[in-house]
Amino acid sequence: MAGADYFGAHRRKSSEPRLWVLMYHRILPLDDPRFALEEPGMIVQPDTFDMHLKELQKHFDVVSLSEWVHANQNSDPVPKKACAITFDDGWLDNYEYALPVLKAHGLPATLFVVAEKMGTDFQFWPNIVAGLLHGGAGAELARHPVFREAISSQSREGNREAIAVTIQRLKVHTDDTIFQALADLNWRTLLDKPLAPALMNWQQVKEMQDTEQVEIGSHTCSHRRLNGDVAQDALHHEIVHSKALLEEQTGRPVDLFCFPNGDYTAPALDLVQRHYLAAVTTRSGINRGETLQSHELTRLGMHDDISNSRRRFNARLSGWI
Ligand SMILES: [Zn+2]
Predict the structure, then answer these.
(1) What is the pLDDT of residues 109-124, one digit of tens each?
(2) Residue 146 — φ and ψ, nearest 5°?
(3) Phi (first) and psi of residue 284, to 5 degrees
């Protein structure tokens, strides 16, 4: 939108407290082999991230999300324009590429990790599917009814945008269904080369936390999407047990939750409200201090294509696009 970069709310004085929450996933440079295997919407390059942090400091008080929510809930003063930085999933590349940039700028961030998967060889199913398509195993994948409809000829040829469409289409299935289908296909044997490790180990998580800049939040135990297909005992495990696991691993209170894929039902929200100070969604928007729903915080998703120049990044911060 014309002028969004210059006239957005982030550029103007605010009469009421507002909170911008930025959502990042992976931080990878273009020449990293992992870059080509990931959906474009998931990645910001390290130089872009560095530029983001410089810009943020011009417009905002960059805050720790838990501290801001805590102060706001207690009616303590909060900055008129605050911004919190969040990372979803706990990718190893956050440790490799985001941490040095955060340290250089001395800014806080929240890392939402998948409690039962850190330090394991877990792979997210979209990366398995992308790895198979890039590796030329599209025909084998299409033999399974779960994948057949979702795969296009372009995605079989390894086109990144087409693979992203395939992944979106697959979301009509539950995570359990997709993982079962991949297991049926014995997916590891179909890869042309093994996938790079996805997640950090606990030592790396702790190293991030020990900077006193990074706080850890829960992104469930297994990254299961909390939609209508999840039974109550599984919901309890994903939401309540993940908190206990993370508190044991980190030795700190875990007050923040992040819904995988932004999906949740009323019972999921209820459990999160009872066990956490606040939670973030994938809904887009800027939060207003007085009216915000602490357990349904909106965020602004960041990826390189829409934020790799100061103008584009500022337009994104306007919340208009
Ligand atoms: Zn996630």
Answers:
(1) 999 999 999 999 999 9
(2) -65, -35
(3) -90, 140
Whole-angstrom distance, CA of residue 205 vs CA of residue 114: 11
Q: How far apart are CA 35 and CA 160, in angstroms?
A: 10
Distance of CA 176 to the CA centre of its chain: 20
SS3 214: strand
Q: Alpha carbon 122 to chain centroid distance? A: 16
pLDDT at residue 1, rounded to an integer: 54
Note whether 119 and 200 are within 8 A (CB): yes
227 CA to centre of ligand 1 in angstroms? 14
125 alpha carbon – ligand 1 mean position (Å): 11
Each residue's pLDDT tens digit, 149-185 = 999 999 988 898 999 999 999 999 999 999 999 999 9
Interval between CA 92 and ligand 1 midpoint (Å): 14
Amino acid at 262: G
